[in-house]
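Note to self: keep these together.
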Amino acid sequence: MRCSFVSFVTFAAATVSATGLFAAGSGYTIEALRITEAASFEPVGISDNGSVAGFAFYSPDMGTNGPNVQAAIWYGEDNSQRLIVGRPFSQAMAINSTGLVVGYAGGLSESDPEDAFVFGNALGALILPSLAGGPTFAQAVSDDGEVIGTTEVNGRKHAVRWSTLGEVTDLGPMPDGDAAPTAVNTRGDIVGFASTVDQDDNLVYTPHMWRAKTDTLEPLSGLTGIPHDIADDGTVVGTTSENQAFVYKDGSSAFLPTADDLTGAQAHAIAPDGTIVGAVGDGFADSRAAIWVNGELAELNDLIPHDSGWWLHTAIGINANGQIIGMGYLADERLAYLITPTSDSVPAVPLPSAIGLVASAAPFVIGAIVARRRRELQ
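Structure:
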């Protein structure tokens, strides 16, 4: 993703009304995301042409690691695809601007562990190589096709990157815990976190960045929590352990405002123009989908048609055209949604006229992986 860093001065701004960003009630159109024959769909990302990747549940009462969970792509109304990875279950984790999808797939026994995969319309699904025979997970993909994820080596969770030729590089474990990379930009900067357990058995997350070219590991100074996305200029967005939405760049951090009647906020994704989406509230039942433009907050429920019947719970991703995906409720049904800016919506920060996105999938040349020891997901 690409953006220019929004001045930290703007983050001191008070919460504004929806009319400060868009015309209230007329900012977006909305539609439900449904996968053919699936009971439900959880989106993880959106490409610039509006394709949405995620995972579909083919039984309404099962968890995310069962045989009836499959990676899927939504292309439009009545047009979706269940990804055929050749394993009992699969899960998409990310999609880049050109539609390249990454995730992992696995079996149901210790002899059939998880493998990372990459999927493109011209490629089909290809398995990514592992290190030392451990379970492997692809977590994110840059706009130019570099994939990042994790693999297990000697009982430790290592961060890895795969080049567009399928070559795997070991970035090692975190010095203070297992590595968990979450996002990568086109420069090759990677963000993620170390997960550890403190003396009171509480999980502690310490955010880090691997710098491009050198893969030098450095902490995001002064922060604890999880970084969720990184822009091409190195701007990082995420959520602190204290449930605050943060923005970080070059050693400085700031917090995004939340709603007056709620405590906490989560920043999930950043668009090429610097727009950030996520949620305000506790991150669970008491949450509402949110957008921050130039540091100013608006709630997405105020920007969709008032008679739509929708209540938007959280925003998960945003593309270069301002389309946003997330989860919400239509009547009493929990559904994935896509909202698209209308012609009469007026963003405070206009999209750049030229973004230079890569137009074709990366030329992966990858071999198959032998069966390996299964590791339970954390």
